[in-house]
Amino acid sequence: MPMKEQPQKESIAEKTRVYIDSHPSIKDCISKDLINYSSLARQIMKDLEIKNEEAVMIACRRYAQRLSKKDHEKDILKIIGNSRIEVKTKICSVTAKNDWTVLHKLELVFVKLINEKAIMQVIQGTQAITIIADEKLKNDVVNTVGKENILRVRPDLVEISVKSPEKISDTSGVFSFLADNLAENNVNVAETVSCYTDTIFIVDEKDMIHAYSILSKVIESAEASIENDS
Questions:
Q1: Is the pLDDT of residue 170 over 50?
Q2: C-alpha dihedral over 154, 194, 206, 92, to 10 degrees?
Q3: Which of 80, 67, 32, 82 minimizes the C-alpha distance to 177?
Q4: What is the pLDDT, as a whole number, of residue 70?
Q5: Residue 29 contacts by C-beta under 8 Å, 6 or more apart in sequence?
């Protein structure tokens, strides 16, 4: 009878790497060489119940060398520093049941959309379909889709679009960077969608100025960073 293969234990180096990856603030400080490795090693030992401090220290320093070679934040800042913001007011969102009949009915709305040169995005999830459109199309969307299929209607929204260079499609982390800045400053994003070079945030009208100010400062800071590196 063949013996069962014993599962390999995760090494201290691998546990340390996973720990650092799951704490973005620590990872960011390591990549910028702003970390006290003794303190970090003791924290990891405590959280992961590891006894070998020397092994954890070595693992931290080796991973730091890897992170320092690929300062990914610079790539993100280059994209953001060359981005611009556009704002559209009087936006609404209509959330309907995720049903093929709803999608079929939306064809009629698209015809009106093209004729009036109005904006509209459709986001399909597992449970629902959300239509983001000019507020003047709200009644048309609701009536066409059918009130019996509507789950929620949100008026008085604003669309803030961050328009970036084409290279954004090959640069991971840009969306997360922008979204994190909004979240950290208590801006509630009602809906969000990414379309080619546009990263779109839908916020309440009352949050428009605050959200615009945050994103503007992020872009200005990124521009300054690019100039300092050149």
A1: yes
A2: -30
A3: 80
A4: 58
A5: 35
Of 136, 108, 133, 137, the C-alpha closest to 123 is 133
DSSP string, 160-184: EEEE--GGGGG-TTHHHHHHHHHHH
Burial 169-204 (b: 16+ CB within 10 A, else e): eebeebbebbeebbeeeebebbbbbeeebbbbbbbe
What pLDDT band is residue 155 in, cutting at 50, 70 and 90? very high
219 Cβ neighbours under 8 A, 6+ residues apart: 80, 81, 83, 84, 85, 162
Helix (H, G, I), strand (E, B) or coil at 86: strand
Please state, in angstroms and as integers, the Cα–Cα distance from residue 181 to each residue in 34, 85, 167, 194, 215, following that order. 21, 15, 21, 17, 8
Mean pLDDT for the stretch of residues 192-219 = 94
User: What distances in angstroms separate CA 23 from CA 40, 65, 72, one per listed residue?
Assistant: 12, 17, 16
pLDDT over 50 at 119, yes or no: yes
CA-CA distance, 80 to 177, in Å (whole number)?
9
Q: Which of 79-88, 132-141, 218-227 has the highest mean pLDDT?
A: 79-88
**Tokens 């992170």 found at:** 67
Higher pLDDT, 150 or 173: 150
**CA 209 to CA 212: how far, in whole Å?**
5
